[in-house]
From TrEMBL:
SUPFAM superfamilies named in the record: 4Fe-4S ferredoxins
Protein's recorded name: Ferredoxin
Matches recorded under InterPro entries: 3Fe4S_ferredoxin (IPR001080), 4Fe4S_Fe-S-bd (IPR017896), Fe-S_cluster_ET (IPR051269)
Domain 4Fe-4S ferredoxin-type per the UniProt entry, residue ranges: 1-29
Length: 62
């Protein structure tokens, strides 16, 4: 399960990196991005929590 963030929907609220900073990070464009090289399966619960908490539903899971 790999998360993906729709950059057009992301408003940069910071909810997802607050829930799991090992998977999500804020970048210079003031939007959240998914970090590479992470064992996403080990963070499955946090990814689902971030997806549910996203106010614009910008997080998708592949």
């Amino acid at each position: 399960m790999k998360p993906k963030i729709d950059q057009e929907k992301c408003i940069g609220c910071g909810t997802c990196p607050a829930i799991d900073g090992e998977v999500f990070e804020m970048q210079a464009d003031n939007k959240a991005h998914v970090k590479e090289g992470v064992d996403y399966n080990a963070h499955q619960n946090q990814i689902e929590e971030a997806k549910s908490a996203c106010p614009t539903q910008a997080i998708e899971v592949e």
